[in-house]
Amino acid sequence: MASLRSVLRCGRNRVSGLLRRDFHRTAVVGLQMTVRDALNQALDEELERDERVFMLGEEVAQYDGAYKVSRGLWKKYGDKRIIDTPISEMGFTGIAVGAAMAGLRPICEFMTFNFSMQAIDQVVNSAAKTYYMSSGLVPVPIVFRGPNGASAGVAAQHSQCFAAWYGHCPGLKVVSPWNSEDARGLIKASIRDDNPVVMLESELMYGVPFEMSEEVLSKDFVIPIGKAKIERPGSHLTLVSLSRSVGHCLEAATVLAKEGVECEVVNLRTIRPMDIESIETSVMKTNHLVTVEGGWPQFGVGAEICAKIMEGPAFNYLDSPIIRVTGADVPMPYAKTLEENCIPQVKDIIFAVKKTLNV
Fold it and tell me: Could you confirm whether 89 is annotated as catalytic?
């Protein structure tokens, strides 16, 4: 089994290598920075700021990370702070959780969150529940991070979204960045938080550059966990999304604006605790809501938003039913054409908006 997984992961590294060549940009061009480099810079600053912080996972050290997020950190901080591990998620996650209980602040990288299923007992039963079960005596300040959801051409066992899975569990905080600002601010907030935090990144976003302000580049910049952001104001309909799908919502909003439809795009940023107040405020203004996510529909993030809106004050402001745009309810196919039909596209969002508004 170990040799088979090694072969599979070698294949995944070749795929991710192609993706890196397709998407990678220079770290900083003017005030632009890729998501990958925003994470790398933030990790460097936090390792330098607090000697209790260390990072472990498969290939994070000498190889500079499977996606080059930890590039250069091993050379700077050495074996005690940047630790390569065997292919044993349950083992190295348990080490990280134990280290957090002992007073350190580990960053545990999964090469993909699909492999976190091997360690879900450590994440949920050990990390998430210990503070409560110890009557507040044993905090577990740990960050579980890595790529989540669909990539490109890696099929069903490497394309699952775990936002709903981990968002279901009390004791965990769950964040999911879209752009470089999100990545930088959320990883810093996660490392400094005294609770276990699951940070769900998008592999396809690692090499995409975004504008970065001087404020965001400050070493003290953090994004509060539990606070959404209005990425684009609008008056006709609210689009709520997370991770890579936020970009699709913004593209759809641009197209729809040319037809006179102004969509307000809400970037969740945090899955748990969810900023339902910001969503309610937007819905009370626009009177329509569409949720967009890459995960499966059943028991998904969009389903939770629908329930929260129905149970709260914003329900009476809705002029039409909420529509969810999600991934297809099937294991991810390998074939490119089928894969594209399983992931929400801009055209799917536009269709849902027009259906909601009856235009």
Answer: yes
